[in-house]
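Kindly inspect this today.
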Amino acid sequence: MSIDVDALLQNTRTHLSQLGTELENLVQAHSEVFEDANLQAKLAAFRAAQQDAIARLQVPTFYIAMIGTTSSGKSTIVNALVGRRIAPIEAGEMSGGVLTLTQAAEPKLVVQETKGAIWETGTWTDLSDEQIYDRVRNQVMLPYHQARKTQDLIAPQVTVHTALLPASDQSLLQLPTGVNLEIIDLPGLKSVQDAANLAVIQSRVNKAFSLVALDYMQVDDEQRKRLLEELKRVVKHLQGRTDSMIFVLNRVDQQGADDLPMNERIDLLRSEIQQVLELKDLPEVLPFSARILYYAQCAWGTEPLDAESRVAPETRLKLLNALFQDCAGMIGQYTRSDRNLRNWFRDVEDQVADGATIDDDTMRQILHYARLWSGGQELWERLRLRVQHSFPELVLLPSLVEVFDNFDALATALNSLSEIRRIQCKDEVEQQQQKLSDSRKRLQSEIKAVHKRFQALTEQIIDYLKKDDPDSRSQLSEICREEKLDGFQLLFEAIDTVEKDLTSVLLKPVQTAFQTNQGSYELEEKLRDVVGSIHAHEVARAYDLVSRKLGNFTRESDYYIKRVHETDTKAVRDLEQDERAMRKLYQTVRDAASARAEYMIQAQAQKLDKALRSVIEAQGNRLCEVCRRELPAFGLDDAIAATYHKAVAQNLPKLSEQFFEFLPKINQRDTSQREVVDRRAVTTTYTEGSCFNRRERTRTEYQNVMGDVKYKELLLPHEKTMARQWGEGVAKKKSMLWDILRKWFVRHLDDAKGNFGTAANDVLDLAERALAEQLAIIEQTLEAELKKWDEINASIASTAAIRKTLEVQTRSSHQ
């Protein structure tokens, strides 16, 4: 069903304003009710949330994130969509930082100051597109890419404020007037190896609609599996919203004559993406050719087609020259069956080659065909529909969640107060006071009991996950079913993913390097993409030293062995250096593994958060059940539940820099053996000649002198032994990782229990004060009080109806 986004936004603004106005009218009409400190605090919180929501919805922002696999043309697509050459385009991976393009009337470039930045940061105005492109590419991204080869840096955060095509030409997305647009060009995973940078990117992607770029040149049978594996890592690690994605298969103009027909290729890819990302429905996959659209759109600019282009003639010629040079094959393909069109394009190409000015009418025609052939027209249509679908959830709802929560806390407290004001008998008041006092005591005890139970439940679940045997898995499933817990089965997958990742991307490559006598630079290049520059360099340097030293060792069984004379001082010193080199290798691999494990934990944040929220919610539901049982009167249970509602913090557990322990099994031993230690001269007598001429003679002989010779031997593990020891170290710490998660869960359960206790005390304190006041009211002004609260209840109901309308608009419109 089509949604009028403009009308939806206006209605939301109107109802949000009405909600505040109705509540303020209630406060003015009965200000004495809000003199209570508890209600004052709730009213202040609502006012702050409502004013913040008004400000956010005054100029709301719709975010589009550009993510994708390696070298899939993300930045080219971004430039094509915004109609400007801003995002750096390079044959290699150039989008190392986060580049945000936001709609503005006047151009401004902001390079955020980040710790350790070796590029110039600051703000620049009055820059041309070419100057912005040069500064972003050559003075920010290139220095970052060069520096990250030798050091770990926080990725550049760059924002370009300028006119953007889909904001200037509202027919493309049909965003309501006043809605800001931000397009975020995000780096590929190869440029993100640390948890801190990953967390920043996740926060941007999670609130955005995502375009996911894939490279057509990687979808053949040989490379498609690798492409899908990378796609899964990109989407899972960056935590993109799979319900708000369009997949763009870029570079389809490279399709060969022997390739599968495009519709068959797309159908196959849709099915495989659905499977690998575990999507409920088949995804949208759009065949696309970004290059021709990029050239044509930038040659026109950001103005609507019914306006005049502001692109300078020389800039247009430069871009059209590139278009005819780089896209000749595509133009030929689409004009082959239309001689007139083919001749028209040839005439335009000749004009461009002659340096003639290309007028706007001709440019409009070129852009028309570029959009049609590239898939750009289809992409804008699909984006327009997705804006309608996603706008309520991605733009409206985030602005209103705090409003809803704070209104509910205030309204339920007023409802409880209203119920108390209806008591007309002193005896009933006194009975309720005693009940409330007794219930408060029992409630505190029940809160502790429920909390203790959930702590024990968490301990039990983690123990089952630790064991990972069929019986434990069965027991875990039963517990989760009974307790209505969701996501705990994913925890094992998350931790198992960390273990497997360390083996495949770090430990195995180092082992393979030893086995194949790989160069240290090649190993460093491979590791840099997964553990960062510093760790990759340290591991590669340690590997290089050890591999060269092992050339002086002999291979025996699982070890490399070297033996030197105990008395050979230099040789013994060399042996000690050999041992230190091996220990250094183990240390560098350990540090790299710890950094990579923390990154992977951040990459699994959604799974961890889902399990945490599940157990926090289950504990909260059980505590609310206790309230309903202990506090059935005056709607106090609803008031406590509304006051308690609090978002779970997103702070994931951290690992120490030396979390893993990789201790090399290095053996040193002193040996001795009998061998020649000297030669000695021995004189012997012998007889020569016949019996008639016998003579005695002497001769000197040299004999070996045997002795016990002492040696020092060093046994270093060979590559298979190293890999086994490292794997054992990871497996050992996997158990400790479960313990870290256990503490993380328990800490948040403690916080939630504390929040619930505070909420209960706030509401019960309000009820006790109200009951005490009710005794005087019954004696003095009962009739007037009842009439006043009838008015208040009517006002609360009217205000609540507006709140309900707001929620229905923002939660249901996108479904």
Observations:
- The longest strand covers residues 695-717.
- The longest helix spans residues 719-780.
- The two ends are 10 Å apart (CA to CA).
